[in-house]
Amino acid sequence: MELDTIVALATPAGVGAIGVIRVSGGKTIELVNGIFKGKDLASAKSHTIHLGTIRDEDVIVDEVLISLFKGPNSYTKEDVIEISCHGSPYIIQQLIKLILSKGARLAHPGEFTQRAFANGRFDLAQAEAVADLIASENESMHRAAMNQMRGGLSQEIKNLREELVHFASMIELELDFSEEDVEFASREDLKKLIYSLKGLITRLTESFTLGNAIKNGIPTVIAGKPNAGKSTLLNALLNEEKAIVSDIPGTTRDVIEDVINVEGIAFRFTDTAGIRTTEDKVEAIGVERTYAKMKEASVIIYLIDMIHDTLDDIQQQIAYLRDLDIPYLLIGNKLDQAKAEIQQQLAADGALFISASQKQNLEDLKAKLKELVSLDDFKTGNTIVTNMRHYESLQQTNDALDRVLNGIDQQITNDFLAMDIRHALHHLGEITGEITTDDLLDNIFSKFCIGK
Amino acid sequence: MFQEYDVIVVGAGHAGCEAAAAAANMGSKVLLATMNMNTIAQMSCNPAMGGVAKGQIVREIDALGGYSGIITDKSMIQFRMLNRSKGPAMWSPRAQSDRMRFAEEWRLALEATPNVDFWQEMITGLIVEGQRVTGVKTSLGLEIKAKAVILTNGTFLNGLIHIGEKQFGGGRSGERAAKGITEVLIDLGFEAGRMKTGTPPRVDGRSLDYSKMEEQFGDEEPGKFSYMKTKPLQKQRSCWITYTNTDVHDVLQTGFDQSPMFNGRIKGLGPRYCPSIEDKINRFAERDRHQIFVEPEGWDTVEVYVNGFSTSLPEDVQYKAMQLIPGFEKAKMFRPGYAIEYDFFPPTQLNLTLETKLIQNLYFAGQINGTTGYEEAACQGLMAGINAHLKINEKEPLVLKRSEAYIGVLIDDLINKGTNEPYRMFTSRAEFRLLLRQDNADLRLTPIAHEIGLATEERYQLTIEKMHGTKTLINDLKQKKYKPADINPKLAAIDSAPVKDKSSLYQLLKRPDLKLSSFEQLDDTFASYREKIAPEVQHQAEIQVKYETYIQREQENSEKLANLDNKKINPEFDYQKITALSAEAREKLLKVKPTTLGQASRISGVTPADVSILMVYLAK
Predict the structure, then answer these.
(1) Quick one: B196 and B216 in the same domain?
(2) Does residue B304 contact residue B293 with C-beta atoms inside 8 Å?
(3) How many domains does chain B have?
(4) Domains identified in chain A and CATH numbers
(5) Measuring CA to CA, how many Å separate A351 from each of A33, A330, B402?
(6) Closest Cα of chain B to A4: distance in Å?
(7) B56-88 pLDDT per residue, tens
(8) d(CA A354, CA B280)
(9) Chain-chain contact of A178 with B290 (C-beta, under 8 angstroms)
(10) In this structure, is residue B368 part of a structural domain?
(11) Contacts of residue A179 in chain B, CB cutoff 8 Å?
């Protein structure tokens, strides 16, 4: 039996110099070949490394190194490709999304190891010495997962599961005891229960965006016209020379990112190319990207150049910002040399005044920034989903529940409803790692770290 | 006086009869020892076979070459396919049997089996050499040698019958209890436990007023259990439904202080899902009525079984309460209900072949393992008979997987989880219910049974024909394609939605509203095509096409599980060495001695973390 193709990040989540994405399964080479521009991997030898680019249609996602391992001479004994990419969570997520869209499936925790075992590759003789270590790692992982990362997640999932188990048992009752004189739950009640479960799941999945933000930083875009002082501000916040700063407008032609901890909240700042009409093709792409970035941002810090901008410009820019409907901070920069009429106008629009180059009023900016991102859920201790795998499991639970609802509407018989409920339970089980009848394999390996 | 037998089967109930027949049909020389040859294959409780999950087991027994299906077909007086309104996995055959005919047919079938000898006497001991059983000892002091022994003692081991405050030894009403075996087994190191079960009163059908009850008919087109060419019923007898009421409950309550259930005289655990009437009243006080099924005991007898009224209250209380049930006002009682306590041996002491871990070539099957139900007992007997024969012929054992048969689920559950109450099969115990259907037990199991030499050539050929017929039919359906313009008016005529593209009958069959028979309205040639195809082939193709995506999903899930079940563990593996395992896991693993990693993972008390550690060590 050929197993399906799986993908996961093999290096720790978060920002790093590089990230390694591992793909394994029968369709690995065909799949990666389809998105990799470089050497033809099908004809390449095993155990070779190839430089090239990964492309989504025509857009380059990243320049990567491909390590090729052809089965059975690989970790899983299947065809395995490890993609070494730049270590930004964004790039990694994009790459994984792309690979998923081509037909791979997100690996379960420890599934590569599971496959190595399933395919008879797993010679763990040398691992014996570390068996105890693995066990202790599990325990600390478990504790960490329970106490920190998951927070209330386990409890919420447990409650969900209990309700589902209740639901499932009502269905099973009807199946196994149809001959007996017992009353069965009405379909309407079952539907109500599913709706409330779905409500909870939706809240949890929606918290993923926030959870992701908390984990990877809130996407914050610094935008403004060319030379408004965006890179200067970012540098001032970063306190290091990361962006290329110059007096020539349009120096920043690409998107530069960094994560800054502002009073305990991580912000992932993105400096952008200045917004202006331009003949320069390269720069035009940069401007387009800026617009795109702004639309994706959770927060925008918009800089107005209080020396060079005109009142008309400012009105236009503010109107555009408002249309975006994304929380923004309007900043008047270059306070030290500001034109009075401009500053007056901006004050009426509620702007904050700074001088990025003089590092003036930066503390106010940080305070405003923190105010702007209302992490209500975070503060009130509501459960937040931060893990992509948990997110996927919740989505799959939701899909299974949708099938149940659909089934009820189409008057599908209860044995099929029971199947989908079992699937929902199974997917919830992937998060908490509890054993149910049908998630044995996954559970066994769930204590192994993903991608290992 | 006796030759040396290959297999001695102790007990001739459902388990013993199947065990004897299976081993003998595979070629073993078998002695069937019973305390009373007049009570071979007694239905100790209700006169019925099958039901939800149980009916599937009977079909599996039949597919493997056991006799329960054929015997039921020959002796039934009513057939119903339960759950017909649900999906195919829930369809469950159930039959009312003629109790006396059932026992008679079994005895005749065994007498007609060349390799089976009989001996009527109580078996009181075992001959054990080293750690291997080599025969049995009888109450007369005889010793009979055998290569393997299968114990199917049912409720007879130190059986104790309770009716109110009266109690007396017995294996069944009117029959002696079996003494000696329990003590011998305990001396050998086995752990024993105590269970209880009960049975309702039997009454004179002539004294009942059926006009006050609802009639429950058999199916209009009755099915049957065997995949062989047994005949379906031409005529049937009805059952009747009536209800208890609060007056009945009040009278029953007057006997509670004399109930062995409530005054603590019965120590054994009874089944929660098959409670006595006093249990029902006690635990579900809010319900003011309980259902009673009035089941005829046969074609000709006037005796009637009062299903749902199982009780161990004093006989006069039983009698008085019963007279208050509508239709029972003038009921004459033939036999009172009673409860029975008996010894069982926790099944975690067995291997998956049902051979004991302590004593080689000794097998346990049926209620001795803590199960309840004829079907559960019969299938264990069958598997023990098969495996005893395979073992003494030094062949690979037959262990059915959980994804292969309810029998596999049952034995896997017993061996790995044990049981605290009489174990009964439910469909929900099977994680791959949709694969384990009553319509495909032959497709699942007959090839396996043929390979080990139990299923006859005739049975095998019938299965192969069904397999090929189904495949051909599905292929033909894929070939028959129609253009929207041609087919849509005809679809409209039978109230089915129009198609957009050229569609095959295979695609149309997936619609919930269409059946193979519907296609006769779509294509004039289909009727003549269809009439040449066996109904069971049509039924099979319909199920396989209609539920294809669901079945595929279940198949994939079961294959995932199989990966782990294919990882073998040496049963003698020393778990004590692995300090990383939890103490509980170490103890359970040492006790159960799993043979695969999958089995290890199903043992209660073994966590996923334990299994992953185990895996690391096993790879060494």
Answers:
(1) no
(2) no
(3) 4
(4) 6-123 (3.30.1360.120), 150-208+387-432 (1.20.120.430), 215-379 (3.40.50.300)
(5) 51, 5, 69
(6) 11
(7) 999 999 999 999 999 999 999 999 999 998 889
(8) 79
(9) no
(10) yes
(11) 51-52, 82
